[in-house]
Design a protein that fits this description.
By secondary structure, the chain is mostly helical. It has helices at about 5-15, 15-35, 45-50, 55-70, 75-80, 85-105, 110-125, 130-135, 140-170, 175-180, 180-195, 215-230, 240-265, 280-310, 315-340, 345-360, 370-395, 405-435, 450-475. It is globular. It starts with 5 loop residues before the first helix and ends in a 15-residue tail after the last helix.
Length: about 500
């Protein structure tokens, strides 16, 4: 099969080609995000079917998260080695196979393997759109493209659980795994029509270097130790948690040292540390980590607060968060256009300020507060997210030399996911600590002002983290010159 180069695809489809290319990868990323969020709906049914305890069942989500986080580091190598089309189609085939295998599995071990396969595919595919936006679109179009892409992607987790709940009720937990099948098939068909074999915006030669397996192993060990160590902090064994977190520190330290050594010897590191010589990228990475912590932490905390703190039903929680999800999608589309005309650091700082305000405002809520206040505060937070999502990647990666853009997209996604994984555990740990300090626990079915005070303190912690991120985001405005020479890895 003779694959046409990007130039012929562009000439064949004209000005609309880059938008068709963006649509093609957007479908696949929506499938990967949906597979990451929707499975939570199936966990109760799966636990009953396989007679699992909560801890084992949770590995369905944890295995996916670890696989996705680590595999993001391999995206630049895969794109350079196999080209865009083969890499993208390969991830969609793997995601499709994971969905089918998980839905048909008769053993829980097979379900876990299927989830890890889906996680690997999701991790590889998620940095690709940012690379395409920076390479296929002109600078004055990049914000608009990011906004349209972001709007499509946030709709997946917004509508996924609702559809998933209906499917579980009608067809059982296995139907959740099959939801990705039509998206994967559509994305593969679109890929063969619109995704170039090499790279949009210029041909990239295939690289003969082998994959940095040692770096990948160290990154995997570090991520596993970090995630399990944070979970262990919520248990009774402080020594176990300390050993795991120390192991994470050692593994990540060894990872950085190995990346430096490999680059110095002319090899191809998983994460090119030349990225962090660009001040805007280094500061953007700090923002991405803290932002991931606040975003994922609040995603865990808000439903728990509404159900356990305010004694609202699960259906009420979904109804309250729905307007915020719709506002988020609209905001992203609008802010994408703003990012083409206004400094991205200003948009990111505005978003973080709104997000911090939404957390701080939560302390005003009492047991007898009107529900519309809760809806309003959630909407303010989602508007803040809408300002951050399209702007952060652009502000961080625009200064990078073109050969470093794939590495930049991979690294910033990896750090955001690490922050996200840390955020969930951080919120859970601080909540349990503050509840104990107020003489309460989540096991107690009754709520009280003391319980709300514990939740308020966790919300204030998240507001503080967002304020800290503003300090780093402020540095995105500084146009520091990049390094004189940048490795082509």
């Amino acid at each position: 099969m003779n694959n046409p180069p990007p130039q012929s695809l562009s000439s064949r489809y004209g000005e609309r080609y880059r938008w068709l290319l963006l649509l093609s990868v957007m479908v696949g990323v929506m499938a990967s995000i949906m597979s990451s969020t929707i499975v939570n709906v199936a966990i109760p049914g799966m636990s009953h079917h396989f007679s699992l305890g909560q801890e084992r069942a949770q590995w369905v989500s944890s295995g996916f998260m670890v696989a996705m986080t680590v595999s993001m580091l391999t995206t630049p190598w895969l794109l350079s080695r196999y080209g865009y089309r083969r890499t993208y189609v390969g991830t969609m085939v793997l995601l499709l196979a994971g969905g089918l295998a998980g839905g048909l599995a008769s053993d829980f071990t097979l379900v876990l393997i299927a989830r890890v396969a889906e996680g690997l595919a999701a991790g590889v595919v998620q940095p690709i759109p940012a690379i395409i936006i920076l390479r296929a679109f002109q600078p004055h179009e990049q914000g608009r493209a990011s906004g349209i892409f972001g709007m499509g992607v946030v709709l997946a987790p917004a509508i996924g659980p609702s559809i998933g709940g209906v499917l579980v009720d009608l067809f059982g937990w296995r139907s959740i795994f099959f939801m990705v099948v039509p998206f994967c098939l559509a994305s593969i068909w679109l890929a063969y029509k619109f995704v170039p074999t090499t790279a949009p915006g210029g041909v990239v030669a295939a690289r003969s270097d082998g994959l940095d397996w040692r770096g990948l192993a160290l990154g995997t060990v570090g991520t596993l130790c970090l995630l399990n160590g944070l979970v262990a902090l919520r248990g009774d064994s402080a020594l176990h948690a300390t050993l795991l977190l120390a192991g994470a520190g050692i593994a990540f330290g060894a990872f950085v040292a190995w990346q430096k050594r490999l680059a110095a010897n002319g090899g191809a590191p998983l994460m090119n540390l030349a990225l962090f010589q660009y001040r805007q990228f280094a500061m953007g990475s700090v923002v991405a980590f803290i932002y991931g912590t606040a975003l994922f932490g609040s995603t865990y905390l808000l439903p728990v607060y509404m159900q356990v703190g305010l004694q609202l039903s699960a259906s009420h929680v979904g109804t309250i968060l729905l307007p915020a999800g719709i506002v988020l999608a609209i905001t992203i589309a609008g802010v994408g256009r703003l990012a083409d005309r206004h400094p991205t650091w200003l948009l990111v700082c505005t978003g973080l300020l709104l997000l911090a305000a939404s957390f701080a405002l939560m302390v005003l809520l009492k047991l007898d507060s009107a529900l519309w206040l809760l809806v309003a505060f959630a909407v303010i937070g989602r508007i803040g997210l809408g300002f951050i999502l399209p702007s952060l990647n652009l502000g961080s990666m625009r200064p990078l030399a073109k050969p470093l853009i794939p590495q930049g997209a991979s690294a910033i996604n990896f750090l955001r996911m690490l922050g996200g994984a840390a955020g969930v555990s951080l919120c859970a740990i601080v909540l349990e600590w503050r509840l104990a300090a107020h003489g309460d626990s989540l096991a107690n079915p009754a709520t009280s002002p003391a319980r709300l005070a514990a939740f308020d303190e966790v919300f204030l912690m998240l507001a503080g983290l967002c304020a800290l991120a503003i300090v780093a985001a402020w540095q995105l405005r500084v146009k520091a010159p990049g390094p004189a020479s940048v490795p082509e890895h």
